[in-house]
Amino acid sequence: MPNRLIRAAMLIAALPVLPGCTLDREAALREELSAWLALQDTLYFRSRSSCTAALFALETERVQFAGGLSRAGGTATGLALIERGVPVYFDLMAMSPSEISEGLMTRDLARGIGLLSSGLGPVLDCAGSGEEKARIIEMFVSTRTRLIYVPGGNALILVSRPDRVAAFLRGNV
């Protein structure tokens, strides 16, 4: 009987590292994002049961408005789209993704925190410990980064226009 308990405990402990216990698969994620972005090489990818963080090189910084993606020129418009569950591209030249999140929190605390949580958790838990994490944080606070928020998928996409790099962040908030 004790041997069965030990084996059961070992099996349960191994569950988080089994291949099927991730939020995203790289190939499926690339396919999903290709509707909006011209992806090149994967620079970083990590997915666990609670989060995904990825960095992709981009052929161009342009975003395609397909697959239900809508453009918001202000936080009020963005919030209305988020409330309807629509993926939103925030076209706000003078605001960083962090500032956009703050603007949303001012209008609707829960939705603003939801957006922030979709990015912050994966950065902390899945973005590695060095260069990748620093790069994503830098993108999050830069006014040269554009933000796409996918409320139904708890995902943020940060598009660094000058670097032609996209960061994908998803948490199971």
- Percent of residues in helical segments? 40-55%
The largest sheet is: 7 strands, mixed
What is the topology, as strand order, of the major beta sheet?
1-2-7-6-5-4-3
Uncertain runs are: 3-19
The global form is globular
Coarse structural class: alpha+beta
Distance between the termini: 38 Å
Q: Mean pLDDT, nearest integer?
A: 85
Number of DSSP helical runs: 6
Q: What does the radius of gyration come to?
A: 17 Å
| Total E-strand runs | 7
Strand content: 15-25%
Give the helices and strands as they follow along the chain: HHEEEHEHHHEEE
At a glance:
With 173 residues, the protein is α+β, with helices and mostly antiparallel strands. 40% of the residues lie in helices and 24% in strands.
